[in-house]
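sorry to bug you again but im stuck and you know this stuff better than me. theres a chain ive been looking at and ive put its sequence and its fold in token form underneath. id like you to explain what the token line says about the fold, in plain words if possible. anything you notice is useful, everything is just below.
___
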Amino acid sequence: MRSLEKKLQEDLAQRKVAGLLRELPHNKELIDFCSNDYLGWAGDEDLKKSILHSFQNKKFQVGSSGSRLISGNSLFAEELERKIAAYHHAEAALIFNSGYDANVGFFSAVPKRGDTVLYDELIHASIRDGIRLGLAKSFSFKHNDVADLKNKISKADGNVFVAVESIYSMDGDAAPLIELSKIDGVYLVVDEAHSAGVCGVNGEGKVFELGIEVFARLVTYGKAFGAHGAAILGSNILKEYLINYSRSFIYTTFCSDFNLVAIDAVYDRKTEIAARIKKVQEIKKYFLQQIKFKKIHSDFIPSDSLIHGFLVRNNSQCKHLEQLLKSKGFAVKAILSPTVPEDSERLRISLHYHNTPEQVDELCEILVGFLNN
């Protein structure tokens, strides 16, 4: 074996011994309490038929054939961006191939040398990676701690960008967006990956729901919208700047027309989006009632979102519970340290439009049994 491959194998072996080896799961046949498909669009048969009908009966092609600055652009893409901007009450929208690409593209391009990026310590890896690729100075602040943030703002240089998630993907808690929006002299950037599509009457997102102004927002399509891709929302000037300077936008083949058709099809279902949001909120309410009734709510991280963390506080026990649930037909994801801090290992439970009260009951009974053993 070549020396490099031997070293790679040793690294993998160490991860396996530590119980941290990642493997690709097979969860499609299980009851879904793990995916980000909050409104159930990803597997919706009527939506699929509509997408296929549109794709086959209009002048779309399989691949985009290049980046948008070469041959990948289309009138349809531009029309869709206008629809996205109008839906989320933004001046402009720019589509990226993924939320990761969008965050990397924004934070590596917009903050400049001499500027400062202040980011919540629990911010998503894509934002951290984008910051690393940029030239601005960067510092984290304590999670959702406005006082700590203000202290760091007082020491910051240049243009100051503040990066937060509206709903945090591991704990399911919300950023104090109203307080943050009132801080003068900073450019607030909000990742709405876990709030776009589920917050607001029609899924416009948390920023619009709260009626605040921010410099930029990210919405993604692989979660509540059930498709794939992302868009950055902001001003026309920001959009033009990203087209000219965002490397993850410029130097990649654009997504396929099929992706765009899928995104467009979900946005056309505004009334049904609102109905599904209402139903999934009812499921969440029932879930919260049940964990309180069964006296296991103290084992959960407080959350008013669709993401709920059941604390196990041990990697091996957490993986054991994940496998126990799988054996009972449930797909729930174990989140282990060091992904989360040691002693905060948990099951990440996601609630969906397609979950039923009966499924919630059975899930809770398994958790109760685990605690009583």
